[in-house]
Write the structure tokens for this entry.
Amino acid sequence: MTGMLEGRVAIVTGGGRGIGAGVARLMAAQGAKVVVNDLGVALDGTGADKGPADEVVEEIKKAGGEAVVNGNDVSDFTAAEAMVRQAIDTYGQLDVLVNVAGILRDRMVFNMNEEDWDSVIRVHLRGTFNTVRHASAYWRELRNPDAHHRIINFTSGSGLHGAPGQPNYAAAKMGIVGLTYSCANALGRYGVTANAIAPGAATRMTESIPEGRRRAPAPQNATDERSPDNVAPAVAYLASERSDWCTGQVLSARGYEIGLYNVPQVIRQIASPGPWDLETAARMMESSFAPALGQRGGGFGQGQGGGGGGRS
Ligand SMILES: NC(=O)c1ccc[n+]([C@@H]2O[C@H](COP(=O)([O-])OP(=O)(O)OC[C@H]3O[C@@H](n4cnc5c(N)ncnc54)[C@H](O)[C@@H]3O)[C@@H](O)[C@H]2O)c1
């Protein structure tokens, strides 16, 4: 069997369940040797169980692929370093880092406590930084501008579109976009691309959204359009040597659709010949910017209150 990822070594964090498990299985089926990381926590980040990661590794091996388990916490800096070291010690190299691990603690911003804020930021944003930090230090040491090293982070429509009931998660996921852009600019000279995926799939994460706000019921089998396995092909392609052309991008992967987001840019500009007079600034902003946003404030602020916001 020769797959698109033959000879490549990958880490998939959060690889024990949901989208991460689908990514780990497809990457292994395409020839990658995979470190399947998962702390095996509950949706809110509590507890720990190596079982889910063990099961995915067993499945991969049964199907003829190569994989090892890593049960570390991505939000622990030293444990993330050990994960990167495990990939290099076990398989001799590391080519691809896929950061999928995540938790949810949904509350409206006016009800959120510090612990729910910190724990979500810690797992998503700090966790993504931790693994990127250690993998990029390793790739920098190699000093190979022609390498095909890959960082693939997971962001969310919750951040990109601002889910009202997920302020902590939305902030963490947009932090990951900034980190991804920064890495794309910083690491290109070492042969590293950095991209982010905004997925959509029926997993326990979307099951936590109140039923009335869900877009579709959980899928019954892998052929269902909302299966987490449908996110994996976009990730596996970005992980391959063929995707050198793609860096600093956010892609959506949901059902049978893969999308390319734009990179934010200034769409209207007004200028003053000197320091702004407040009334002039107000009038020019109202006459130039307000029409560009239309009546609904560019899609923000109308009829979005309450609940988890329908995205994860
Ligand atoms: N499901 C969706 O529609 C959706 C939408 C947007 C974004 N996402 C993002 O996609 C990713 C995967 O989501 P999912 O729906 O498969 O969720 P999931 O809950 O099924 O899987 C997440 C996995 O991450 C693991 N994990 C959590 N904290 C960890 C830690 N500290 N260290 C190591 N592992 C840890 C969990 O044990 C779990 O197995 C997440 O980053 C999520 O935010 C999902």
Remarks:
- The two ends are 36 Å apart (CA to CA).
- Residues 9-260 form a domain with the Rossmann fold fold (CATH 3.40.50.720).
- The pocket of nicotinamide-adenine-dinucleotide is lined by residues 13-14, 16-20, 37-41, 43, 45, 52, 73-75, 100-103, 123, 127, 154, 156, 199-201, 203-206, 228, 312 (CB under 6 Å).
